[in-house]
Amino acid sequence: DADVTQTPRNRITKTGKRIMLECSQTKGHDRMYWYRQDPGLGLRLIYYSFDVKDINKGEISDGYSVSRQAQAKFSLSLESAIPNQTALYFCATSDPRGGNQPQHFGDGTRLSIL
Amino acid sequence: SQQGEEDPQALSIQEGENATMNCSYKTSINNLQWYRQNSGRGLVHLILIRSNEREKHSGRLRVTLDTSKKSSSLLITASRAADTASYFCATDNSWGKLQFGAGTQVVVTP
């Protein structure tokens, strides 16, 4: 979905480094999410934000932090990367108006930590 | 922990055949959603079925929901090579927070 843009698309880095993954959206949605995808495990929720002043931990938030800089921007940080954080990371958005809205995903960031 | 579990994990069919995949979940839900993921891309929403609905159609897609059995199925009719992808079910049991299954990988051969 071109309306949800993730940068970078690929990143290789070393253990202990601080990394920031960025997500921006032009859909005007209030809700934004960060997921990681590991082979065979589907997507797991790291953090989510229902509006600019709202940040919530998801299922696997340890080792991660987020910042909601604006309605359109939601960044994910790994303070000190470790190899088991190697995964595919997705940002998603949704619109809460009208209830039961689907999520719209970016194309992901493939992160490798050596 | 994952809420949804898809079955089968992988499915290989020929063009023109139907593909059926199932999703089971553990707790009550507000709605259940199906997504498709093409290789190297993000997930794309296919269809949403509310907890008070039993069946829904969208083009060649048919989704059923049985809340008594906590299960859903996705049927793709007359499959095409372009349907090759991974398919995920996701349950919404907390108004906007989704829990995804591990997915079914579908390969459609010409």
Textual characterization of the structure:
The complex is a heterodimer of chains A (114) and B (110). Chain A has no helices and eleven strands. By secondary structure, chain A is mainly β. In chain A, the strands form two sheets. In chain A, strands 2, 4, 5, 6, 9, 10 and 11 form a seven-stranded mixed beta sheet that branches. Chain A has a four-stranded antiparallel beta sheet with strand order 1-3-8-7, with no helix packed on it. Chain B is built from no helices and eleven strands. Chain B has strands spanning 5-7, 10-14, 19-24, 31-37, 43-50, 55-58, 61-66, 71-76, 85-92, 98-100, 104-109. In chain B, the strands form two sheets. In chain B, strands 2, 4, 5, 9, 10 and 11 form a six-stranded mixed beta sheet that branches. Chains A and B meet through β5, β9 and β10 of A and β4, β5, β9 and β10 of B.
Comma- or semicolon-separated keywords:
heterodimer; A: 114 residues; mainly beta; four-stranded antiparallel β-sheet; 11 strands; B: mainly beta; six-stranded mixed β-sheet; five-stranded antiparallel β-sheet
Shape of chain A: globular
The residue ranges of chain B in which pLDDT falls below 50 over 5 or more consecutive positions are: none
Q: What is the chain-wise order of helices and strands of chain B?
A: EEEEEEEEEEE
- H/E series of chain A, N to C? EEEEEEEEEEE
In total, the number of strands of chain B is: 11
Number of strands of chain A: 11
| Uncertain residue segments of chain A | none
Question: Nearest-angstrom radius of gyration of chain A?
Answer: 13 Å
Strand content range of chain B: over 45%
Q: Pairing-aware structural class of the strands and helices of chain A? A: mainly beta
Return the average pLDDT of chain A rounded to an integer: 93
| Total of helices of chain A | 0
Query: What's the story with the biggest beta sheet of chain A?
Result: 7 strands, mixed
